[in-house]
Design goal:
The protein is mainly beta and about 400 residues long. It is about 5% helix and about 45% strand. Strand 23 and strand 24 form a beta hairpin. The chain starts with 6 loop residues before the first helix and ends with a strand.
Length: about 400
Amino acid sequence: MTAGVDPKQRRGSRRAVALLAAAAAMCMAVPSLAATAPTAAQLTTRVVKKLPSRGSYAVVVSLDKTKVQETADVYVGSQVQENVAVAPWSGAEAAFYVHPKAKKFKVRVVGTAAPVKFTVAVARQTSALAASQPGATSYTAAPRNPDHTLVWSDEFTGPAGSAPNPANWTPDSGGGCGDNTLSTNTASLANASLDGNGNLAITALPVAAVPGTYSSAQLDTTGLHSFTYGRIEARMELPVGQGLCPAFWMYEDNLTSTGCGVACGEIDIMEQGGQNPYQISATLHGPIAATPGNTNSQQWQSGVVSATSLGGAFHTYGVIWSPGRITWTLDGVPYATATPASLPKGATWVFDGHPFHIILDLVVGGYLGPPASTTVFPATMRVAWVRVYQ
């Protein structure tokens, strides 16, 4: 024992030294801020999707809105779509085509800021189509909805070079894809005719006499067949290339020579920019505000991005349309839905209780800009069939 030191002070000093040593050890054990960031496993959401049978399936993974803006990687089986953007104001849809050996497949989504919730929808595909489309696929059964009775269709059967059925289709000089289009629609069979293999071929061609311009075609059922509600679908093969704008859409019958009538609306079932064959758009156009002289404008838009190119192959594009609700489908799988609540403030829902007619066209230019030197002409959009169920 050391002389002159109070035992209580010595015990207190030892206790202080012990506490300092323990605190130092704790500080050494505390990981850095970088090390405390969530790991991929902590950011991953997983689900196993069970299937009724083996086969080929179209799959749409719908990512929910998130608390913060971030990106996510979406894995379906061995396929992946990376850097899918999600935010507090918008989720996202990612499409895949899988051929699982078992009656199930795995889906996982890895966020960058937080785990991302998602849902999975599927539709079985089959290659049991006409011999003229070897290897083509189509879903075997309608989505679950009451529209199951076929009320109108065109299967585009007929000899090569013949005109589309005039009882179903009228050539139209109008067009979509915005202003400054470089193509003019014609009634020429060179621009719209049957290909002899069960398809309608709408073809864009350069106009030799006026470089930088093109001829193409727009066909619609106006004055012949119009529909209010139902499941409206077309099986189409889209061309690929900068400046090409294939579309399948519907327009309200109230359109007059002086413009939009009381309830003028447009439903874009499928629109694609040929420079991005992995993505299709779903759009609603209608009055933004109920004021005189207001022009038709874009009210709402969504879409889906596929892990594999949708261009150059047949796919089925459609809508399921009911009062106050329109759902878009890709190969039988729903991927987007709009209701009156989906529209921005001041927009009017003009899609209920009025007949709409069907339009098919292929535009060059417009808001997509001119074709690139790599865009191949003739450029053809093929349509295997158009069907309406109610």
